Amino acid sequence: MIYTVYCDESCHLQNDQSSVMVLGAMYCPKEKKKDIYSDIRAIKKKHGLSSYFEIKWTKVSESKEKFYLDLLDYFWQNKDLHYRGLVATGKEQLDHQKFNEGDYDLWYYKMYFLMLDPVVCPDNEYHILVDIKDTKGGRRVQKLREVLCNNIYDFNGEVIKHISQINSRESELLQLADLFNGALAYHYRKLEENTSANRGKIAFIEKLQSKQDIDRATSRYASKFNLFVWRPQR
Q: Pick from 7, 53, 71, 104: most CB atoms within 10 A?
């Protein structure tokens, strides 16, 4: 089977005042993409939104709470949709000089490898699309493909067909990845505890928590919602 994998990140910058980084992938069989896009646009229409409305964690609000909760239900009900997330904690404590050749981006792509590794099965084919991070991303993305391929002895690129960059505005599946990543980052940064916390975001996280315990990692082999929590060694 051929899968299309959409990857996004939250709190990924080195000096963004966050101790947490979240990487995530929303993926589905390639042949199901059009049906999923159609379904998502129907949900938008149901809530009086334009088909071009961009799904985004930063746009979650009390006024759009029901729309985002419907999206969460849709994800859980659609057997063809899958999510894999990685929460990296202690970001501000990392010693990149000692472990990453002084390069924060090297650690970033190490985390990307850990996030994507359980998604890739040698029996399938994968087209991986990564949200554009910066102008240096293209070179790193190709290195990521090389490492992933070597890990499964896919030296001819028969499993991982290609990895390329994409703008999030181009894909609702990438936007869904942003939504789930944002919820995890919000939760692990304990922003729900703020007195000014967004009620719509709290409702989304509570419903997500009712479907899957996001305070702990899942099994590596969990299929629908797969979560890994990475912590630096002391």
A: 7
Question: Which among 205, 229, 183, 227 has a CA at the least distance from the CA of 82?
Answer: 227
- pLDDT confidence of residue 167: 79
- Ordered alpha helix ranges (H), the chain: 33-46, 65-77, 96-99, 104-116, 137-151, 172-188, 199-211
How does DSSP assign 122-139, residue by residue?
TTSEEEEEEE---TTHHH
- Please state the separation of Cα 213 from the chain's center in Å: 17
pLDDT score, position 134: 57
For the beta carbon of residue 9, count every other beta carbon within 10 angstroms.
22
Assign 3-state DSSP to the chain and report helix, strand, coil percentages, each to 5: 45, 20, 35
| Backbone conformation region of residue 101, classed left if phi is above 0, alpha if psi is from -120 to 50, else beta | left
State which amino acid sits at residue 220. R
Which among 51, 33, 61 has a CA at the least distance from the CA of 182?
61
> What's the pLDDT tens digit per position in 114-155?
999 999 999 999 999 988 765 555 677 777 788 888 888 888
Which residues are 7's β-sheet partners?
Answer: 25, 130
205 — phi, psi (to 5°)?
Answer: -65, -40
* CA atoms of 184 and 215, how far apart (whole Å): 9
Q: Which domains does the chain have, with CATH numbers?
A: 2-230 (3.30.420.10)
Q: Are 198 and 63 contacting, i.e. CB atoms less than 8 angstroms apart?
A: no
CA–CA separation, 9 vs 22, rounded Å? 6
Instruction: Report d(CA 5, CA 180) in Å as an integer.
Output: 14
Rg, the chain, Cα only: 17
